[in-house]
Design brief:
358 residues; 13 helices; five-stranded parallel sheet
Length: 358
């Protein structure tokens, strides 16, 4: 739990209604959970609301600090206008803008009666890292979020906790799922997330297939494949390239499981292997040890998984990072950041992580 300034919760100017703004993306929304920890500790009687896109709500909606989620339903001006009216009706006394985007700037205009605190996304520093004009790494996203609380007297502890909460319903789903699939409590479970929004952040399907085959052969582990519904065909293609039986190739959870159910199932994984994507943050927030495969991006940009993790990357590539978020193609045409990231390199990191997690 994030400790607080000793007088923060007692001050007569303590906010009564707090609104947190962070609309996207999946991992960024998930990483706001430590801020909610701090708010709950400092202002236990405040009403705390969280505005985000509806599809990302599950990664924060069960946090004990929240009074309720205010979802943005759908794209377009009519949906956003309706959302703004909902925010105004809350009459917040404090607004924490953890996005600093055009959308949140518009929201600030409609909420100008509130005290507004905006986080510094360090956009310039990250661009300088991409241009190779700066070497010092950017501050981690969690630390940048928590800096917003400093004017309120809330100081983060040296060890910052990051947890994504799930509902009792989803905890029951997890138990029933494992019983139905006859997975014993001692069975090693490995989660994999082969997708990513940007192609330069995706490790090759055939290499995921080879790594997964080796893990099953060496550890007799159960594989759970995670992803969005549109990544289900990618997972099927990877499974088709694997050795072993249908059961040994694991379960494709992207086909018919909700984000809430996936979050619950991540909590059962002993290890998670994925690209630099939102899923690695979800796995970390559910207590997994993570192995993250980096291509065009780097940990220096400030989006590493927060919890225990191992980084797999091709060292000493002068072209990395080539973009803050990723690209749809290698700008130099060679794509060495992924082509030189071998299965042996990834397997070594996985084995080291498994030894640490036992």
């Amino acid at each position: 739990m994030t400790p607080i300034h000793p007088k923060a919760a007692e001050t007569p100017t303590a906010p009564q209604r707090i609104l947190v703004l962070r609309y996207s993306s999946l991992g960024d929304v998930a990483l706001t959970n430590p801020v909610l920890d701090g708010l709950l500790a400092a202002f236990p009687r405040a009403l705390i609301y969280f505005a985000t896109k509806a599809r990302f709500a599950p990664v924060v909606q069960h946090h004990p600090a929240l009074t309720r989620i205010v979802p943005l339903e759908g794209p377009g001006l009519p949906a956003f206008w309706s959302h703004l009216q909902e925010l105004k009706a809350l009459k917040p006394t404090l607004v924490l803008d953890l996005h600093d985007s055009l959308r949140t700037h518009i929201a600030q205009f409609f909420l100008k009666d509130a005290k507004i605190l905006v986080y510094d996304k360090e956009a310039v520093r990250r661009r300088l890292l991409v241009k190779k004009w700066r070497q010092e790494p950017a501050l981690h996203a969690v630390q940048k979020y928590l800096r917003v609380l400093e004017p309120l007297g809330i100081r983060p502890h040296a060890k910052i906790h990051f947890e994504i909460h799930v509902s009792k319903k989803d905890q029951s789903f997890l138990r029933e799922f494992m019983e139905r699939k006859r997975v014993s409590p001692s069975q090693m479970v490995v989660g994999l997330g082969p997708g990513a929004k940007w192609l330069t952040k995706r490790w090759f399907p055939e290499r995921y297939a080879e790594l997964a085959s080796r893990l099953v052969e060496d550890y007799r582990c159960l594989l759970l494949w995670f992803g969005s519904p549109d990544e289900a065909p990618l997972i099927r293609a990877i499974q088709a390239k694997m050795r072993g039986t249908t059961l040994e190739r694991g379960m494709n959870l992207a086909e018919d499981h909700s984000l809430e159910q996936s979050l619950a199932l991540l909590g059962r994984c002993d290890l998670f292997i994925g690209n630099d994507s939102g899923l690695t943050h979800l796995a970390s927030g559910r207590g997994c040890r993570v192995v993250v495969l980096y291509g065009s991006t780097t940990p220096s940009l400030g989006f590493e998984p927060w919890g225990p993790h191992s980084v797999v990357e091709v060292a000493n590539l002068a072209c990395r990072p080539c973009h803050v978020h990723g690209r749809n193609a290698c700008p130099l045409g060679h794509f060495k950041c992924m082509k030189d990231l071998t299965v042996d390199l990834a397997e070594g990191a996985v084995k080291r992580s498994m030894r640490r997690s036992r």
